[in-house]
Predict the structure.
Amino acid sequence: MSTTLHKKKLSIISFSGDFDKLVAAFTLATGSAAVGYDVNIFFTFWGLNAIKQKKSRAFTGKGFWARFFGFLMGGINNAPLSKLNFLGASPKLMTYMMRKSNVATLNELVEAAILLNINLYACEMSMQIMGLTKDDFIPEVKEVLGVANFLKYSEDGDRLFI
Amino acid sequence: MTFVKTKIELSKLQSGDRLEVLLVEGEPLENVPRSSEEQGYKVISVEHVKENIHKIIIEK
């Protein structure tokens, strides 16, 4: 009888694009990668904002409504808190509190994810809706995927929806 | 996050190099030595520096 040793795997679907949920997703991702997990993050819908090249508001995308939404949503620097956003003051306040407590900020967490070779993927369907192309994202985004390939890449591991 | 930063710094070193990590009591102090050994690194020493701060030396 033979047994195959599967490397531990974690796949996170980053949907919400909220600042606090992105911090949670990246903390789980980097913490797991640091102890040897194979980690995938699949960015979809609002989550796509976290991996845009333009980190602040810009008219990215094709088509009037796509560019309208693209501008309003912005990039990772505009990620709102999921509660008590106070018109955008809270993410800045949270970042200040995180620095003060010597906890990694969201941008530091994303940097750590890249250094730990975490696989970053973008959702094809949401990209189509928003008229985005792979060039609108940071170069570290590995591939554009649909559900079928996401299921294949996340097989035999745990999946989380954040 | 402490072990994440430790792992990233260790990955920049050559085999045989040592890394000094200053961390706080609680989860970091429990987690870093254990995870380092699990990942194949060698924990040379763990010492209390002051208040709740400890120093760990890890060899790659």
Q: What stands out?
A: The first strand of chain B starts at residue 18 and ends at 24. The first helix of chain B runs from residue 2 to 11. Helices of chain B lie at 2-11, 27-38. Chain B is about 35% helix and 40% strand.
